[in-house]
Amino acid sequence: IKLIVHAFSRKKVNYEKRLSEQPKINLSQTDTTGVLKYLFQNKEDVKGIEAVIKHLLSLAADKDLIIKLCLNQLTDEPDSWGDIRASQLLGELQANETIPQLIEGLSDDKDDFLCEACEDALKKIGEPALEHLAQVIRTGDQSQIIYALGILGNIPSGRSAEIVMENFNHLWNKFNDMLLECIWALADKRFIEPLKKELRPGEIRAERVYYFLCKLHQIDDPHLVEIRQRIETYRKRSEKTLKILSGQEKGSPLDLIH
Predict the structure, then answer these.
(1) Which pTM was predicted?
(2) What is the pLDDT of residues 147-170, one digit of tens each?
(3) 18, 94, 116, 181: least surrounded by Cβ within 10 Å?
(4) What whole-number distance in Å separates Cα of residue 208 and Cα of residue 200?
């Protein structure tokens, strides 16, 4: 595990280094189309991405052209490294008109890197994406719904909470973990009652979220004491397990299973 984490960390550091390096292109002497062609190269190792995107964002007069070429990239070269950077750029531009294309990029059949880039872009666009996300929650595929919940959790709006509330039962039955994360992030008081109806003793994740909401909104529930005790027991058991696994304490994690 340590080797895997170390390798991932090195790869991340190298990627971030490439982002901040100087691009292999003279930005001041290259037209907008040429700069985008450089950015959209279908390879992972494109140097100076941050500088290139910063330059493109400064070209206010060319915004429409940039958006058009980004959309062309998403259509003409699907599942490429260029797609990922086009999505990132659309998010930085907060190009509301491209929300449908970004949502399409969250689909089951899309690469994970592209899904994450489209997710980040939609988070940057924010509230204008909400009604589109409401439709995704109702009719999207599994990947779209999972990412949509993550996006909604990052848009602190009453409407975000309403969208989740309107589809609570469906989301609880099929996307429980992501729903709980979204509820925790939005922390809306309206979630307390439907969540209370679904609580089962010992379902720690749900109990943690419920306990948090009640404390946050000063809701008095006599069950909070026992919920708190279960949460604390689970926390101590988890800490004990980690210490055993890391060699800090002797024993077997199986001994902690009751």
Answers:
(1) 0.85
(2) 999 999 999 999 999 999 999 999
(3) 94
(4) 12
